[in-house]
């Protein structure tokens, strides 16, 4: 199963960097049934980490309460234009993915 | 953790406003829902679908192993920017009025050698229809912010407008509904859902201008054909065939009525 | 001379305009015929109109004489309860009012439909998610009482709204077999019972 790329945008203003990311993921809760009544297996992101030039700025645990294709926005102090922001996730099926963007 | 903090706040506001109140609460409730919509608009997942569509647009496919990069959506081969703001339109090469989806099927057939039936017969968001949705998301993103500008000069466009208007008022089925039953009056709602009055320029622009859209409630990107199909489903009529003339005629009627309004595609709906 | 020529032009123009309209409508019918298909429980023939549906498919309502005729015809379709009992259980009625399900091509059966009442009407004191296409029915029984006339009228209105307003937006719940007689009895109780949340805060 291939994963799909995230869309990441980051910009810095007055020494604070704002990161916005759209994450492509089904985020199946394991509670839903398909048209034939069979349970759709759970499939969701369990961990998500964001780094600034390799240094973690956000480490989080995800679960089934988060929607499909989650949108994530957060701010951290520091950062400069051109710095590298990387976001990685892992899901309960053992899939993982990392995407990167430069701070604008 | 900061996951969609804004959503949470907005959702909470809706919950609080909804609890013990009566008629006067409706406005608060609607305000809460509108705040929720605004919060959603910041991170429209259509972007993810559009990114897939852009890749698909450039990827060689089909028996002819060609991409869609030479597809003519009305502004010349390969021009995507602003194209969907001017659709539907009359195309000389096919001799037909086409909307975005039927035009894309023409390009898939002529450029790539793909059989349009594969799109028509696929289930919504499955197989070739899923690919179509991605292509649509890409194309309509390239018209965001433009003005709806449908060229009504061709007699075939005028004819489709007349037919679309007749379809709009056509009452049928076990519930005697037409499009106008819900979209033929000002300031009405179904449950808490506000209904645009599609007879007016303002209403048509709000409706036509904000579809195709991503629906947060089910995490799906819906094309205009999908939207119209579900309108008919809720009217309890028979099912319109994908890309059939009635869907094109209705699209012409809506787009022409909306002319001059703003394109807000891809929209985001709850 | 001028007058005569104008008249002549008018006379020539009129049949042309008529024929043109006829053409458009014939074309419309052909378009509808080739644009729809049967899916699941929703057959294609749902697109073919009943006479009154056609007469009510215009921008404006038909003339009063036509409305009167439709209403008289529709009035004849109303079947009042055979056992003379108009009221069921308001709690069942509330469930029917809340449910908007049924009769789409994704429904498995044409039975067990909801009334979809809240789509268009305000009804009870506690449900804030209601539509506004139809009038508010809040405190329906409390305001109107339960005389034989109002009870019979309400039954008829639910059974076939077109008997009272030819081009009403409201479906013919009884006549079109959307709801059963028993379901209509439950809805009647929901509207009239003093303990129903429609009437009791």
TrEMBL record, chain A:
SUPFAM superfamilies according to UniProt: E set domains (SSF81296)
The record's InterPro entries line, in alphabetical order, gives:
Ig-like_fold, Ig_E-set, SoxZ, SoxZ_dom
User: Gene3D superfamilies given for it?
Assistant: Immunoglobulins (2.60.40.10)
Q: Name one Pfam family in it.
A: SoxZ
* Superkingdom assignment: Bacteria
- Give all residue intervals belonging to the Sulphur oxidation protein SoxZ domain: 8-101
Q: What is this protein called?
A: Thiosulfate oxidation carrier complex protein SoxZ
Gene encoding this polypeptide? soxZ
Automatic annotation (TrEMBL), chain B:
The listed locations are: Periplasm
Q: What's a Pfam family in this record?
A: SoxA-TsdA_cyt-c
What protein name is recorded for this chain? SoxAX cytochrome complex subunit A
User: Which UniProt keywords are given for this protein, alphabetically ordered?
Assistant: Electron transport, Heme, Iron, Metal-binding, Periplasm, Signal, Transferase, Transport
Q: Which reactions does this protein catalyse?
A: L-cysteinyl-[SoxY protein] + thiosulfate + 2 Fe(III)-[cytochrome c] = S-sulfosulfanyl-L-cysteinyl-[SoxY protein] + 2 Fe(II)-[cytochrome c] + 2 H(+); S-sulfanyl-L-cysteinyl-[SoxY protein] + thiosulfate + 2 Fe(III)-[cytochrome c] = S-(2-sulfodisulfanyl)-L-cysteinyl-[SoxY protein] + 2 Fe(II)-[cytochrome c] + 2 H(+)
* InterPro entries cross-referenced by the UniProt entry: Cyt_c-like_dom (IPR009056), Cyt_c-like_dom_sf (IPR036909), SoxA (IPR025710)
Top-tier EC class? transferase
Give me the gene this protein comes from: soxA
Question: Which first-to-last residue range defines the signal peptide?
Answer: 1-25
The organism's superkingdom is given as Bacteria
What positions does the domain Cytochrome c occupy?
Answer: 52-148, 164-263
- Complexes and interactors: Heterodimer of SoxA and SoxX.
This enzyme's EC code(s): 2.8.5.2
Q: Upper lineage ranks?
A: Bacteria, Pseudomonadati, Pseudomonadota, Betaproteobacteria, Rhodocyclales
Could you say which protein family the record assigns here? Belongs to the SoxA family.
Q: In which broad location class does this protein mainly occur, judging by the first location in its UniProt entry? A: periplasm
TrEMBL record, chain C:
KW Iron (keyword) present: yes
> Could you tell me the keywords of this UniProt record?
Heme, Iron, Metal-binding, Signal
Top-level taxon of origin: Bacteria
Q: What is this protein called?
A: Sulfur oxidation c-type cytochrome SoxX
Residue limits of the Cytochrome c domain? 88-195
Looking up NCBIfam families in the UniProt record yields: thiosulf_SoxX (TIGR04485)
Q: Does the keyword Heme apply?
A: yes
Q: Where is the signal peptide?
A: 1-19
What Gene3D superfamilies does the record tag this protein with?
Answer: Cytochrome c-like domain
